[in-house]
């Protein structure tokens, strides 16, 4: 554990809390992609198959939090507040994301066993899971402030993990190329959003995309 990984985990947890807060207080999931949230459930379930192998309280708690938090988000969107879900705007074809990730999991795992293949799938899938949400924002041309804060916290989590990998390489001589490449891909997806967030949302303006 290092400060960059801790900050990344906190940023990730804040993103999930912000999303649940937004849905529960507004009683609406308008503007949110159920496809993205469902992909995140698949990411965490496939990654944390070792959840019952105790490493530390922190490790177990965070794994449970990510699985339960993402599952609760999907439940609220798909069932409790489904009448507010804008299905017509959540139209990105997710098979274009899932199938390449499955292929990469079988082609480039560190070891050929079910747990390692599922872990590899989860890394690649997480790198593109946000794409339906970003596509939805692009399609509608705007995002509520709290949705923007959620996306910024989620993007910051990946950016901080890049610093974590740099730190581990320098201090521990540890390199995880799958996580690094997938993390860079995910961070690049956020670049335009980061610019708009800094130039608009932080200044108190609504995140409206340029025409």
TrEMBL record:
GO MF entries: ER retention sequence binding
A cellular-component GO term for this protein: endoplasmic reticulum membrane
Keywords: Endoplasmic reticulum, ER-Golgi transport, Membrane, Protein transport, Receptor, Transmembrane, Transmembrane helix, Transport
Protein origin, superkingdom: Eukaryota
Classification via InterPro entries: ER_ret_rcpt (IPR000133)
Membrane topology: Multi-pass membrane protein
Any one Pfam family match given in the protein's UniProt record, by short name: ER_lumen_recept
Any Gene Ontology biological process: protein retention in ER lumen
Segments traversing the membrane: 61-79, 91-111, 149-171, 177-198
Keyword Transcription: no
Subcellular location: Endoplasmic reticulum membrane
Classification via PANTHER family: ER LUMEN PROTEIN RETAINING RECEPTOR (PTHR10585)
Family: Belongs to the ERD2 family.
Name of the protein this chain belongs to: ER lumen protein retaining receptor
UniProt organism field: Sphaeroforma arctica JP610
